[in-house]
Design brief:
The complex is a heterodimer of chains A (207) and B (295). Chain A is of the alpha+beta class and 207 residues long. Chain A contains six helices and ten strands; from the N terminus they run αβαααββββββαββαβ. In chain A, a hairpin with a 5-residue loop joins strand 8 and strand 9. In chain A, helix 1 packs parallel to helix 3. Chain B has one domain: 2-methylcitrate dehydratase PrpD. In chain B, helix 2 packs across helix 7 and helix 3 packs across helix 7. Classes of the chains: A alpha+beta (207), B mainly alpha (295).
Chain lengths: 207, 295
Amino acid sequence: MIGPSSSHTAGAARIGRVARSLFGREPKWASVSFYGSFAKTYKGHGTDVALVGGLLDFDTFDERIIDSIAMAKKAGMKIKFIEEEAITDHPNTARVLIGDDKGELELVGISIGGGKIEIIELNGFQLKLSGHHPAILVVHNDRHGAIAAVSNILADEEINIGHMEVSRKEKGKMALMTIEVDHNIDEHILKKIEQLPNVLQVTKIVD
Amino acid sequence: MFRNVAELVELATSKNKKISELMIEQEIEVTGRTREEIITMMDRNLAVMEQAVERGLKGVKSHSGLTGGDAVLLQNYIHKGNFLSGKTILDAVSKAVATNEVNAAMGTICATPTAGSAGVVPGTLFAVKRKLNPTREQMILFLFTAGAFGFVVANNASISGAAGGCQAEVGSAAGMAAAAIVEMAGGTPEQCAEAMAITLKNMLGLVCDPVAGLVEVPCVKRNAMGAANAMVAADMALAGITSRIPCDEVIDAMYKIGQSMPSALRETAQGGLAATPTGRELEAKIFGIPLDKRE
């Protein structure tokens, strides 16, 4: 990874990259709120730079991270950083709001040390991703059979589910499946899940 | 699977296996990857560490200008031969500093267990290498042993400075390094655990107070002392000295101390060295206005 801090640099880059991959494209604007230690030290740790690097889809060892803010500006991305005073449960918390003219996405991530992250909120859905295992997030329509269809594909591919949660804001509308698995998930499995009738979006979280 | 140091030592002793081997077996089980894949990945980490040390020993300077060049000063001093402590220990210190200076310059490093504490494990490894002449494979095993102890700390306590202070970062790194040195030097699994306990005991309470919120002052020198601490503790454990408080309880004490540390001393640049007159002055110089006065 690129220094100087695994939690404030690599972790922040990962939070940014998860937001980017869930959004599915490069955002036109980003508003990032930092809490706790992130808020107090983000300049010195390069947390802002790293998070934007993640939004540009850079991995933690990508040396382009260092110039990410300039690169994002050049690409026309508007970026705002907000230092929050509120006390959060975890000292390294970032709320990332990104979007373009077609849509927006809001995500809250915490960086727990050594570059490991957890995503605790996505578009208002509460979730609990430990970050210790590979995971997939499936945005789906809240209909019967949607969950079974996804778990059937995983069963066919001999992938065991270690932890799973389903969360929705309103009955019958959009819902989110968070599935932690024991093994890394191949691209072809993600494609299969994506093609299911009630599935809107599939994203892989940890390698 | 092992959840704590006691289980790790018990497993190693009853199966007559090295701790590094147990860590590899656990990785195979957890990730589903083959042994070859796992070894190759660790070999890549080792290469990153080697390159970082090499780069640091040529001399780097951070963006802020606060750190850089100390690894070179120390190497030159060692070459003159008039040092007081010992060659291996100073070599470890210099290589730990080299790695962390590269980190401060936003160079590529391998987090062991974190970036801010990335100097200790490679620093000691490459210094001990000169003394013990390990094969490449043995050097990779060193990293797995360190990883086994880091795994236990990360799962039972924390390795984050913002959550647990510097004791959780450089403290954990030094403990991991001490255990790995002991295994490479032919010590028993118990001695690995004793070395980790002795090291971590002497890092308890260490706060995270980075000047200007940069990972430079005092981080680079804390890596230096983390490496020295690990070397001495490894020698003590190999001499047969044991810790009265078992390793798992030391880890737990570290976790609880971290929880009771005020947030000013947990990576917020609000207290400790960051809040000294010079610390504030450096901060003002680097950022124009101190962090807490900014909008």
